[in-house]
UniProtKB/TrEMBL annotation, chains A, B:
Belongs to the aspartokinase family. Residues 297-373, 379-451 form the ACT domain. This is Aspartokinase. Pathway: Amino-acid biosynthesis; L-methionine biosynthesis via de novo pathway; L-homoserine from L-aspartate: step 1/3; Amino-acid biosynthesis; L-lysine biosynthesis via DAP pathway; (S)-tetrahydrodipicolinate from L-aspartate: step 1/4; Amino-acid biosynthesis; L-threonine biosynthesis; L-threonine from L-aspartate: step 1/5. It comes from Subtercola frigoramans. Residues 259-277 have a biased composition (Polar residues). Pfam families: AA_kinase (PF00696), ACT_9 (PF22468).
Amino acid sequence: MSLIVQKYGGSSVADAESIKRVAKRIVETRKAGNEVVVAVSAMGDSTDELLDLAHQVTPIPAPRELDMLLTAGERISMALLAMAIKSMGHDARSFTGSQAGMITDARHGQARIVDVTPGRVRDALDEGAIAIVAGFQGFNRGTGDITTLGRGGSDTTAVALAAALDADVCEIYTDVDGIYTADPRVVPRAHKIDRISSEEMLELAANGAKVLYIRAVEYARRHGVTLHVRSSFNNNEGTIVYNESATEETIAAAVRTSTGTIPVQSSDPSNPTQKSETTVEEPLIAGVATDLSEAKITVVGVPDIPGKAAQIFNIVAKTGANIDMIVQNVSAASTGLTDISFTLPKSDGQTVLTTLTAEQSEVGFASLQYDDQIGKLALVGAGMRTNAGVSAKLFTALYEAGINIEMISTSEIRISVVTRADTVNDALRVVHTAFGLDGDEEAVVHAGTGR
Amino acid sequence: MSLIVQKYGGSSVADAESIKRVAKRIVETRKAGNEVVVAVSAMGDSTDELLDLAHQVTPIPAPRELDMLLTAGERISMALLAMAIKSMGHDARSFTGSQAGMITDARHGQARIVDVTPGRVRDALDEGAIAIVAGFQGFNRGTGDITTLGRGGSDTTAVALAAALDADVCEIYTDVDGIYTADPRVVPRAHKIDRISSEEMLELAANGAKVLYIRAVEYARRHGVTLHVRSSFNNNEGTIVYNESATEETIAAAVRTSTGTIPVQSSDPSNPTQKSETTVEEPLIAGVATDLSEAKITVVGVPDIPGKAAQIFNIVAKTGANIDMIVQNVSAASTGLTDISFTLPKSDGQTVLTTLTAEQSEVGFASLQYDDQIGKLALVGAGMRTNAGVSAKLFTALYEAGINIEMISTSEIRISVVTRADTVNDALRVVHTAFGLDGDEEAVVHAGTGR
């Protein structure tokens, strides 16, 4: 018997009808002969509503109590989901993060998983029940307190359960058909990626692809969990995120388990967006991601002497801000001064500006410039490792479209560029075309007509 | 240092503003030098909203999952209350029923407390924090599952914590000033009772007084907990519910602790509704309660042979219905048949009728009559034990008002009568007057102008 972990997000369980629809899908998975563990998020916008309530009570809610509050959200969705399944004649049991053995450190609001001891979940499966686990939440042994895992927490819950229970596959259900070569709302000819390595997925997620959270991908990669990102509105095969170290047989088995009777790697002629060569040869480029959530800070007139960059980024590090790209201009010989630019989430912008300004005389820079009208585009593909000329092709495509590049940063399997925010969607389309990623048909963004 | 347990119901924490108001009251109690433990209900109508959601998913929700669902309600209110207190600069910690050691049996939806192990609550107090405990909820050790205590559960949580922590007093906050001699909405001259024995309170609660739940009073009585029922909208002294076995000093100490600087048994002339003789001599009558929630079933033409009543009530008992008054007419000698009438909650009426009808030929009765237009009035007072003529005075008052009595039932400290539903409020007023309970001023029903 195979074990499947499924994760359903808030939009999949937004109301009683959605919950019944999800329950039916879970029951079908069980009936197909699988053991099923489900990680579920809070209903629709309920987490935001609870946050609103907290802020009506106090501008800065105590972190322990905020976690206690927010975990009520999944408690509601998981109980409703379990009762929906039971009303369909199948045994189901809901478990809080604590009951499911999601042991974390004590950092409220952003706890890290330190151990997973899903004894009660395993017992429920052994007794033939479907286990419904609250996503996003955990439990600290030292304090005995409830914790939450922060952004993308429910994805992480699902992956951690899949790892601890040695599941055959971890299915991440969402409202799109899988991971696309680019955002289909911007690039109508973006096509669904059939398979992507977790390394490439990490780069895409880190550079703005919204479907999977980077943290869950990291966890899956470290523990060798095969992910299947797919739509909760149809039975199509989605995107398989595989570990580079996994064998072809392991991956194929995961796909078989997950898709049930759907033929593996079907060459169904009615699905022309499926690129047949993906099984034959690793594609050069997996996908292109864009991100409009970042801003750029330029530290102007920094004395070009050793240790200055370190000094600046030590100051920035104290704010906890997540720095992304860093560029240092060549120093002007005449002045002995240089400029250092870096990108960071807009939400961290004000704090970093304030902190740097306070240290201006200590560091000795001339001024700060803040720019929140930037867009980032990242081209990701493991094939870059063995293919020269990718950067040149990228820069040429952007040049021919009249799009100016402001910053460049590269890794082994990724090239990122910063442009003006209002050109990034044009950039995405020309790059998608230039690298031959356009499918033959327009992507169906929402297949939300039920099943 | 005294220890006070306070209970706040859903209407006291209905929104963010109410929560802040309650937090302020709790902080004041702490500042007065007391250790404070709070049992809190779910916000306003949120439990009903969760129930609605469950019924949208399935008509008969699985009891385990329903408890999981409903306990999200207090989780929200207690976390918000704790963060409100913390934002006022006082340490506070919220605890679920499980964390607070409310150990119950496994009967979901109506669990009974089997043990209270409030180690974490005690630790929080020892560290100077205010402990906020979720009312209504518990935990079964055998299954590891979350349970709920059923109707009046939050009152019971408060009393059980007060007993386990050996609190000096358990304050039950509500939207009225205390227990009244009669419902002030019906009897404008009803006056607040300053003190009432738990035995009398039990009879009042069992006969329709809504402010306290009978189960919490029973628990308090069994464990010697002194209750103080008072308004959350002012600082007035409310009603002390004392155990008959408690000494006068114990009760006075509880009152002193609870009222802080308010003089005990003040004879403040601005409070003329306070009857000065209540401290001198036990009053004949504590109060009068009415109840319109019951119906009457009459089993017509029962063979008057031994064992028939037992047979009927064994059948009724199987439905789980809570039978209240039972009256059997004298058998008509000519027929050898008798009628048996009993009252029960209207909500149980249909089930009992169906069950009895199914056994009609077995029992051999002629027919069933169902009457849901009855009202019950109960006169309660420990003074009845040593005073003859109470029944006669009651019946006379009703007769003179032209109110017909349909059933009568008595206990050592209570007389109950059943009348037509539409006469029960008139009955309440004339009885209240006949027994000298009318105060000199009209009662203030809602003092809800905040403070």
